Amino acid sequence: MSKSRRSPTPQPVLPLLTRVFMGSAVGLLYLWCMLIPLVGKAGSQSPQSRENFITVLAVLVSAFLFTSLACRQLRKHPAPSPWYLRVGYSLCLLQLVCLFLLLGGAFAV
Question: Which pTM was predicted?
């Protein structure tokens, strides 16, 4: 009587929660890049400029939170390659720089 050998199920490279956070962070950062014109020169002179600013700020803060949560997950469950964490930290740094520029009024020109 021979036993059927089952091959072990392959484990994902990154845990599910990390993939969700990183995917959400990149998606929100992309959305934020599309929303930048709302706080640009034309957007800052429109009647709804305050609402535009709040929307762009909320998307940027959300993207930063998701990215920092993804980096936290990557530190708990190390990835096979160290560049995953480097990319996460680079995104966090980029979002912080953009946040300071946004709050400083650099995008309004």
Answer: 0.74
